[in-house]
Amino acid sequence: MEQRDDIEAGKMKIEWGSQIRNYVMHPYKLVKDVRSGHETGNVDAVMDGALDPFLKAYLMMAGQKEEEI
User: Fold this and answer.
1) CA pair distance 44, 42, nearest whole angstrom
2) How far is residue 61's CA from residue 43's CA, in Å, rounded to a whole number?
3) Is residue 28 within 8 Å of 22, Cβ to Cβ?
4) Is residue 21 within 8 Å of residue 31, measured between CB atoms?
5) Digit-coded pLDDT (tens) for 11-48
């Protein structure tokens, strides 16, 4: 129960400005992860589920933050 409370406490409200990724499809193509700064111009691949580079970038960023603590 304590572990779940810790997870819930870290969640952000679902509202404007709290998104984790931005998708731009026109006039140019770009998907950017706001948390890690990772971005790609291959919007079609991301829309088809190619999220591994975003997951890796986030995990690398999270690991660096823990090392700093």
Assistant:
1) 6
2) 22
3) no
4) yes
5) 767 776 677 888 889 889 999 998 899 999 999 999 99
